[in-house]
Amino acid sequence: MHSPIFAPIISLVLWTFAMAIWLYATRIPALSRHGIVYDPAKPNEAFTAQIPPRVRWKADNYNNLMEQPTLFYAVALVLALTGSGSGASLWLAWAYVAVRIAHSLVHALVNRVMVRFGLFALGSVVLFAMTARAAFVVSGFSQ
Asked: What CATH class is the domain 6-139?
């Protein structure tokens, strides 16, 4: 089975891997440069607090990509499996991916909270629209 909505799904997964690479490409040198060593006897927060904020932001964003986007994957797969992964659903999926990438860049580079929140809220609205479309499809009303 092929569905056009698979492309934005895979794109967001690839973006998540890109953020993981960026996270480690900045974190490992920062740990070495600042002599930071993980102590398993201390809470994780004590370790994290030693890492410079500009480095931490990448990890924080990577963690964000493991949260709400999981709903996107589920909804997009429902749309694909029900044959509704094109048209408006596809546009919404690409919009969600674009907003999440923009959110990542703001978070990882400048971390402006209100800009991040605006992007998060916009992404949530797009995801809700996708979810409403999927609910409509699985309810049988679209036939």
From this structure: mainly alpha
